[in-house]
Every structure is written in structure tokens, then in C-alpha cells.
Amino acid sequence: MVDQAQPVSPGSENPDASFVEGNAGGKGRFPPRGRPVIRGINGIGLWSLYMKEVRRFLKVQTQTIWAPAITTLLFLVIFSVALGRGGREVLGVNFPTFVAPGLIAMAMMQNAFANSSFSLLSGKIQGTIIDLLMPPLSEGELMGGIIGAAITRAVAVGFVVAGAMLLYPGVSLAMAHPWAVIWFGLMGAVMLSLLGLFASIWAEKFDHNAAVTNFVIAPLAMLSGTFYIIDRLAPAFQTVSRANPFFYVISGFRYGFLGQSDIGDGRAVAMAALGLLVLNALLALGAYKLLKSGWKIKN
Q1: Cβ contacts of residue 19 below 8 Å, gap of 6+?
Q2: Helices (H), 136-265
Q3: Helix, strand or coil, per DSSP, at residue 264
Q4: Dist. CA 139–CA 294, nearest whole Å
Q5: Strand intervals (E) in the chain
Q6: pTM
Q7: What's the pLDDT tens digit per position in 79-103?
């Protein structure tokens, strides 16, 4: 006797079992429910987010890349005329050569902050933040794409500003320690990218972001020893300056060009380099925890 096939009511089959059977025959298309499709790092998604952010600032590169070079060159002209007249030398070099590395580092940091602080904030204001939250990207991948694009913009601005500096008479950008130029330039860009991400998460409108720029970032940048050495300050203000992480980025970056800085000798510069790495690691951990909590993003 041949057994009759029993009818199967719709929805009574086991989708997990059918997937396993289909996979055994090479015909399975979809994984069972609850099983992750992407394991490890979503490389395609991370690269797509990075390229989206890079193309965003390249679409207005006149404002995001070339304008900082003009603004920084004007800073160099004004301060050189005001403070560098009479052949004034600082740290054994003429004033324009002394101030140029600090202006390059400052431009890199400010543009890194501007890029990362715009990403989430614009999405929250325009109602398009769902485009960042819905794709299969972890918090680390989301942070990596935004921070990576901000660093890319900072490096691009650094090269353009350096090229503009070379047009000014008397400026020399010969590097005494290339490792310090690369390390402190990247550490400064990473630090400001992370601070920009914090600001982007916290801010609810562009006025909030502008407040952070005007009352936190700009004062710290201007009081970082970009235009002077801190030895000429009163002891109390020297202590305040040494508590400013911007000071170590500017002075370490300058050390890479001039071979000396007001941080101290090579050992002190190496300690400052390690300190910035630790600070950035703590900032990255804080940003990751904040993104994972969904504070002011998923509410």
C-alpha cells in the first residue's frame, strides 16, 4: 500500500528545516530567521558610508578644502606683519616659519571637527538620520565611516594649506622629524573628529553646534601656542596651556618641522604622542558607548 501524502496547511512548515534541506541540495537562498547574514565587519557598508561622507564634502570643495587655505594664509600674513616684523625669530627660525606648522595643524583640526559634527546633526534636523541607522552597520562601523571621512578631509586641507604656506616669502616647511608630523597631524584630526561626533550627537540644531565651535573649539585652538611659545606666559597660564590637549598637537606637529618645541626635548614629545593616543582611545570608547545607547539619536 502506498501512503497518501498528507496535505500541509499554509504556514505549518518549518522555515528553518526547509532552509537546511534546501541548503543541503545547494538551493537555499535565505538564512533562517535570527541568524546574522553579515559576520565580522561589514566592509561594503563601511566603505559605502565612508565614500558617502567623502563625496559630501567634495561636492562643496571650494568651501571645505580650498577656503581654509585662503583663510589660513591670511592669518599668516596678518600675524607675520603684526608680530614678525624686524626679523623676529622664535625657536631659532623666522616668525613665518615658526607659525606656519601651527596654522596647518589648526586648520586640519577645525575641519575635522566641522566634518564629523555635521554628519548626524544634519540627519536629525532633516529627518534623514534613518538612512544611517537602518543599514546593517554596527555602532563601531558607523563611527569608523564618519571619523574616517573627517580625517580624510583634514589631511586634504593640511596638504592644501601647506601648499598655500609655501607661497609666502620666507616660509620653510622642511621636516626634521617626519614621524612627528604624521603622528601629531593624525592624532589631532582623530581627536577633533571624535569631539565633533560628540557634538553631533548632543546638538539638536545648528546653533548648538555653532556654540561648541565658538565657545570650546576656537578658544582651545587659539590658546594652544599657535602664535607664541608658552614660556612667555605667566606660570599660572603656562599650567593652563599644558592642560590643553590642543597645545600638544600644535607643538608636536611643529616639532616635526623645526626639530624643537615648547613641549620639551624628544622624550617629552614622545610622551605627549603617547598621551594623545590614550586620550583618543578614551574618546573613541566614549563615543562608541554613546552611539550604542542611542541617546538623542534613536529617541
Answers
A1: 28, 30, 31, 32
A2: 139-165, 178-202, 206-212, 218-222, 235-242, 245-258
A3: strand
A4: 10
A5: 89-90, 93-94
A6: 0.84
A7: 888 776 666 788 888 888 999 999 9
